[in-house]
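Could you help me review a protein record that somebody else here produced? My question to you is simply how this chain folds and whether the tokens agree. Thanks in advance; the entry in question is below:
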Amino acid sequence: MLPIPMRWLIHGNISPAAVQAIVRHGHVTTGVSELLVDEDLALSDLLKHALQKQLDVITTDRSLVDSASDSKRKFGRAIVYLQLAGGDVEQDDAIDRLFARYKSPKPGMLYTVTENRVKIRQLPGGTLPAPGKAAAEAPADD
């Protein structure tokens, strides 16, 4: 069974080969310019727009990762940070490595993809509960 397609916001210096690799894995990509937001928008505002549009983010920009990590606000989508020195081929291989191991990256998680591995850590605020789950887990008033 194929995973549900994810919608990815492409941010930073992502090669066309990497974008094609994302599509090849059955996902959809959107550029920052397609979001109809100013490309010089503050990174915290860019993350807010991505969250509102229900877009996961893939980036090569460390400052966007730092902005999400330093934020007090939950970012309930996945962020993939390509921390690579190379170009098209390395990014393409990194995307393949990411999706070979993690078919559907989870919300509230940061996936850092290097030349050799994929590291995962939870973003501040953690993952968001499934709709209706928080209310079901709340203690009943007696």
Residues 128-142 have pLDDT under 50 and may be disordered. The first strand starts at residue 7 and ends at 11. The beta strands are 7-11, 28-31, 56-59, 79-82, 109-113, 118-122. Residues 7 and 28 are 5 Å apart (CA to CA).
